[in-house]
């Protein structure tokens, strides 16, 4: 009985956090940091280590170049804030979030579409 009560309390706290938590707001400093990465890194990928779409994106890009700058948000102390800054900049909340030569490409499906059209490699080569 006690275990069920603990489980119920735990589930309620999870649901409250999911539905009623205030969104993380990106500070001006973090937003500037992200904008600098987008501007200064020819290929910038915001990723998460456990994400299968990120893994596919990284494999596709690394088959063309090893010079991509990959930021694994789940290993950064300010990863959630960086992801919020990316959302504020691009309108995309998910990862991977890919930029080539300062241009927002989008996510994995966008990158794979460019690749299948034969446009990804020339875009990457031009950025480097």
From TrEMBL:
Q: Locate the Glutaredoxin domain: which residues?
A: 43-105
Q: Which GO terms describe its molecular function?
A: glutathione disulfide oxidoreductase activity; glutathione peroxidase activity; glutathione transferase activity
Signal peptide coordinates: 1-21
Is Kinase found in the keyword set?
Answer: no
Annotated keywords: Disulfide bond, Electron transport, Redox-active center, Signal, Transport
Record's catalysed reaction(s): RX + glutathione = an S-substituted glutathione + a halide anion + H(+); 2 glutathione + H2O2 = glutathione disulfide + 2 H2O; 1-chloro-2,4-dinitrobenzene + glutathione = 2,4-dinitrophenyl-S-glutathione + chloride + H(+)
- Protein known as: Glutaredoxin domain-containing protein
């Amino acid at each position: 009985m006690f275990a069920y009560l603990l489980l119920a309390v735990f589930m309620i706290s999870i649901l409250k956090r999911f539905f009623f938590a205030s969104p993380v707001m990106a500070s001006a400093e973090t937003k500037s940091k992200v904008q600098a990465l987008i501007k200064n890194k020819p290929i910038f990928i915001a990723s998460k280590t456990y994400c299968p779409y990120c893994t596919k994106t990284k494999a596709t890009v690394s088959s063309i170049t090893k010079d991509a700058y990959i930021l694994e948000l789940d290993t950064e102390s300010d990863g959630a804030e960086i992801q919020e800054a990316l959302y504020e900049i691009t309108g995309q909340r998910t990862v991977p979030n890919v930029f080539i030569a300062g241009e927002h490409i989008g996510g994995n499906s966008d990158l794979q579409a460019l690749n299948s059209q034969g446009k990804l490699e020339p875009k990457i080569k031009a950025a480097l």
